[in-house]
Amino acid sequence: MYQVTFDEKDTIIRIDRELMAPETVSRFLDLVNLAAALKDSRLADDWERMFTRMLGFPTGVRLIRDPAFNKGTAFPEKEREVLGLRGLLPPKVHSMDDQVLRVLENFRRKPNDIEKYIFMISLQDRNKTLFYRIVTDYIEEMMPIIYTPTVGQACVEYGHIFRRPRGIFISAKDRGRMPDLLRNWPYQDIRIIVVTDGERILGLGDLGADGMGIPVGKLALYTACAGIHHALSLPITLDVGTENEALLNDPLYIGLKQRRLRGAAYDDFVEEFIMAVEEVFPRALVQFEDFANVNAFRLLEKFRERICAFNDDIQGTAAVTLAGIYSALRITGGRLREQKFLFLGAGEAGLGTADLTVSAMVGSGLSAEEARELCWFVDSRGLVVKSRSDLSGHKRLYAHDHEFIPDFLTAVETLKPTAIIGVSGKARMFTRPILEAMARINERPLVFSLSNPTSNTECTAEEAYNWTEGRAIYTSGSPFEPVVYQGKKFVPAQGNNVYIFPGVGLGAIACQARHVTNEMFSVAAKTLASLVSDDDLEQGSLFPPLPKIREVSAAIATAVAEVAYERGLATVPKPEDLQGFIKSQMYEPKYHSYV
Ligand code: NAD
Q1: Is 268 helix (H, G, I), strand (E, B) or coil?
Q2: 528, CA 20 to 30 Å: which among 253, 259, 306, 317?
Q3: Is the dihedral of CA 156, 162, 166, 167 positive or negative?
Q4: What would the pLDDT profile of 194-231 be if each residue is shown by its tens digit?
Q5: Is the model's pLDDT at 49 over the cut of 80?
Q6: Ligand 1: centre distance to CA 530 (Å)
Q7: Euclidean distance between CA atoms 73 and 298, whole angstroms
Q8: Cα(569)–Cα(38) distance, rounded to whole angstroms?
Q9: What DSSP element (H or E) covers 421?
Q10: What phi, psi does 170 have (nearest 5°)?
């Protein structure tokens, strides 16, 4: 399975492994995997000699300080001996399970979520294997810390809690040298990049370079939830300035203190970035993340058919929301084409969801026009209708021939939707009268309150159940505790994009897809909904329990890769057992022996 190539000085210069693993190494991309591989190789009987050949493999203090290889107190006796660790560690050799206990004890002792975030990020800096073991095994407890909602607060405070840099920052000053910057990254075979320009971080607005917390967090989830090895991923922030006055005046802000590039200057900058990626990391999938509305759709349209790319805010959100709709329809027994959707907010999440829902309805026999008639929008100025002259490009597709309605409650009462989908980024917009109206109109109203973070949710789980007599089919963008309404316990699952993007990414890179298509997201939504059990639905969960996320990601990855093979978009031969192959490629965070 592995082939190791040495140069004339006996230094490893190349490791080839089927499909996903790093191929060319200057420093060891993944010594942990390599160590496992070499065990099976012709050199298996000569481990210690191997180490002397492994130029660059850290020993002593350098090894303990290298987060990719460090095992902390879990280095066994033999490794302590061979690798110069004697005396540098306390005598007791702990198991990984002991270390997990220690981390959890310290984690749970932290007084608030941002302290927990700082603690986990510091662990990631010290010992990646242990970090990913814990995030994987305790995903329900860890997700709200390393990702939404806490990551939002972490970005707001990024310059103030800054410890160590992560990922690559490319600033407006780096025009003309972007490939060189990318080459500074220590790993050469990057398969997945998450990139932001920080202009629309979650529902928090323009956080400039402080938005780096988002790509870092997203990629941690790729590793924990889909087993994409961290050495294959790269977080990138494009620092094109910020319009955030507070940041411009903050001495601890980490980005350029200048206004954002706009127009041609911005477009040229992004174009140069994509060209640099094509040159330096030609096999990387690029995930656009938290770009502002004005740029997100345009960049996606420009690059989706040129490189392998997608936008999670548009397509990932759409797929997880559509999956939630499919699950809800399993409860109501209704059909997709019989629904009427009213969105609050006509941005990336709302329009992306409507587009994907329309394509799913077209798949079930409606024309695109008929399907769009079932999707309505209220934005910050009111109902999106043809008579409005202030509608930007994409919104116009959903402008209906209808009288203008200035507010959401009247829109609900007039249009009588079966589902309301909150993607406005504005708190408490699903008021009691709105939810009561939804409950009058529908036996089981669909109430999706997707805005993040928690403080921006359109309505809480408790409000949704209390104000609809417990009849709402509810999901939210941020997590909520279970709610008991008149003796019945509801456990609403978070409509988190994490159910979708790790699986889509894994599927795309496993078959080295040329592009990521909308069909892949539709298939991902269907696959996700099919994995929700009747018991989940019974308690009001529209998504599977988070601890099943690796299983979910493997299933989605398989379905996505199947589409790539069917459509001729895969660039490597199809393995006989696709799902088996994909599962075999998923990184499992555990210590391998080095000697
Ligand atoms: P966006 O900035 O592209 O769009 C926001 C939209 O809301 C705009 O159309 C704006 O006009 C509208 N809006 C603002 N104030 C409004 C008001 N008072 N009434 C009605 N509409 C109003 O942002 P986006 O990417 O579409 O994200 C929107 C929200 O959805 C964010 O809070 C984000 O965190 C959340 N989101 C959740 C998920 C998820 O739960 N899986 C995924 C993506 C985004």
Answers
A1: helix
A2: 306
A3: positive
A4: 999 999 998 789 999 999 999 999 999 999 999 999 98
A5: no
A6: 27
A7: 50
A8: 33
A9: strand 419-422
A10: -120, 115
Which of the following is catalytic: 132, 147, 474, 499?
A: 147
Atom of ligand 1 nearest to the CA of 352: 26
The CATH architecture that domain 97-307 belongs to is 3-Layer(aba) Sandwich (3.40)
Active site residue 147: yes
**How many angstroms separate the CA atoms of 96 and 77, rounded?**
15
CATH of domain 315-498: 3.40.50.720
Using CA atoms, how far apart are residues 392 and 298, in angstroms rounded to an integer?
A: 12
Q: How far apart are CA 355 and CA 516, in angstroms?
A: 16
Q: Is the CB of 320 under 6 A from ligand 1?
A: yes
**Among 424, 429, 451, which is best to mutate for testing ligand 1, by the most ligand atoms less than 8 A from CB?**
424
- Band (pLDDT 50/70/90 cuts) for residue 47 is very low
The CA distance from 410 to 85, in Å, is 70
Residue 36 has pLDDT above 80, yes or no: no
296-312 tens-digit pLDDT: 999 999 999 999 999 99
* Residue labelled with tokens 């592009």: 515
Q: Is residue 426 packed enough to be buried (19+ CB in 10 Å), middle (13-18) or exposed (0-12)? A: middle
Report CA(459)–ligand 1 centroid distance (Å).
14
- Domain boundaries along the sequence of the chain: 97-307, 315-498
Q: With the C-alpha atoms ordered 539, 544, 545, 546, is the resulting torsion angle positive or negative?
A: negative
Q: How confident is the model at residue 432 (pLDDT cuts 50, 70, 90)?
A: very high
CB 327 within 8 A of CB 529: yes
Residue 175, pLDDT above cutoff 70: yes
Average pLDDT over residues 160-167: 93
Could you give the CA distance from residue 5 to residue 516 in angstroms, rounded to a whole number?
33
